[in-house]
Fold this protein.
Amino acid sequence: MKRIPLLFLFALLLTGCPDRREEKPSPGSMPDEEMELSEAAFDELEGWQEDEMAEMADLFAANCGKIEKLKTPFIDNSRIKIDSAGYRRVCTEFFRRKINKGSEFKVFVEENFTPFLVQTDGNAEGKFTSYYESEIHASRSRHDKYVYPVYGRPADLIELNLKDFDPDLPNMRLVGRVSGQKMLPYYTREEIEKAPFAAPVLLWGDSAVDIHIMQIQGSAVAKLDDGSSVRIGYADRRFRGIGSILLAKGLLKPGKADMISIKKWLNDNPAEAQKLMRENERYIFHRIIEGKGPVGAFGVPLTAGRSLAVDRRYVPLGALMWLSTRTPDGKPLNKMVAAQDIGGAIKGAVRGDYFWGSGGDEILAHAGKMNSAGHYYILIPKEAAGDK
């Protein structure tokens, strides 16, 4: 296994592109962890031969569609930089060969990519949790049990990034509202829930707990009382999880704060639940979306069991990964995934949130309990990795 320090790898990525410059990081935006990528062979990846990759051709096609439109030198401005032009050439070859089978895709990957083990401070092991697209029951009109609003983005909510005003300022996104000539933090969850609120109501749900969990997960399928269903995605996101609040107050025991236990506690204690849910002051607004799956931060629909949320400070969105970890019941989970999403709690060079899929409590029972050690490899086009 050949080890390539990150700075040297970056030099390789620029080979043949002398006019391209690395974007200067803003003060405070660069992570503290020291990264190293170690080159590996595909037969070193646990479970490589067993993964059938049936869904990966369609997923890769969607990623390529996004990457082909990029105007930037790299597919993402992360610590690991992958040349956009080189990636587009791989995508062109993929479409030319009309690959649509998992077995064909595996051969294509072996021919065009090199795996690199991602390490931080000399350690390849990190933490892997999972999330899912939740399910709520709702109506297009308020009546009977459908009394909890699902709000769309309000017109007075504004956002800014300090870096847009001065490149030397931190890359920090702020969300708020304007009052007079002053920008203020946006209304808290309690202020939104207690007083008349000027925002579009997309739907009316039958459970405040299910809506809160939808806000934690970021998206949901809403099953409507007329027999139809719609998909809801987040329009704005930053969240403090209810699990940490319940743990801090001793209402759940350490190791018992999975989503099934959290949901049960909230439903069993409705009066106290409302008060505790309001301790997360940030309210999440949503939008109705079209498509076959929830859309991640990379702008393409997520694929159950194949999409991974990462910390994009380190890992570029759009990259193929090889994940090695364990399911909540301890079974090996070795498979190809793609970095397609981000999450507020997903911080670190070796940290991932595995997208389990869509559904109700059955999916929640799996996704809400996953908290496993593991590692991953990033797959880099061979020409960018210096192999051609």
Observations:
- The CA atoms of residues 135 and 347 lie 26 Å apart.
- The chain has a mean pLDDT of 86.
- The first strand starts at residue 3 and ends at 5.
- The chain is about 25% helix and 30% strand.
